[in-house]
């Protein structure tokens, strides 16, 4: 009986831990079907019908948050997402209803300061590595966080101390961390250098360079 209780407890713990990890992801994730974008749940269920040319994550829009139009500011919160259809941009709510149409006069100025990344890509003999120091001794390895060995490195905006890094090896894209541990395997034709990791803890990837989808840091597709 004690052993059974332990197994049940462990099972519940693992389920709870799995839920904790999923909670870092947005509840609604953009997905493109037949050239049109909508939104699916974390479980892959279609929640907002694909009809948009562009569908962004539910996130803040600082231009609207700082709008001179007080009534428009509410639509700048992360409860809404920006979409585009027929060259017209809207904010939609999580039920898919269009609640605001963008107007140039409503856009305020973003005052968010630009934060310089602690880690930077560094090239040596045509290969890319990673450094966090301003002065590098090229004669050894100690000043490199990742010794140059990749065709390309790009540090994504996110956690300044523990960033995710797009890398290319053998003409394939993958993701590594600052310790050069592979996070997403080198199996993709492209990984977009956008804000999807910072905004939603997801990477926008493609296996053919044409059709894109999102994966998390466990390479689970959405």
Notes on the protein architecture:
This protein is an alpha+beta fold and 222 residues long. The chain folds into 2 domains: 29-106, no CATH class; 120-215, no CATH class. Helix content is 16%, strand content 37%. It has helices at 2-23, 62-65, 70-73, 196-200; strands at 29-33, 36-40, 46-52, 54-58, 81-85, 88-92, 98-101, 120-124, 127-131, 146-150, 152-155, 165-169, 172-176, 182-188, 190-191, 203-206, 212-215. The chain has a 4-stranded antiparallel β-sheet. Strands 11-12-13-14 form a 4-stranded antiparallel β-sheet, with no helix packed on it. A 3-stranded antiparallel β-sheet has the order 1-2-3, with no helix packed on it. The protein is globular, with a radius of gyration of 21 Å. It starts with a helix and ends in a 7-residue tail after the last strand. Residues 1-23 have low confidence and may be disordered.
Summarize, please:
By secondary structure, the chain is of the alpha+beta class. It has helices spanning 2-23, 62-65, 70-73, 196-200; strands spanning 29-33, 36-40, 46-52, 54-58, 81-85, 88-92, 98-101, 120-124, 127-131, 146-150, 152-155, 165-169, 172-176, 182-188, 190-191, 203-206, 212-215. The chain is 16% helix and 37% strand.
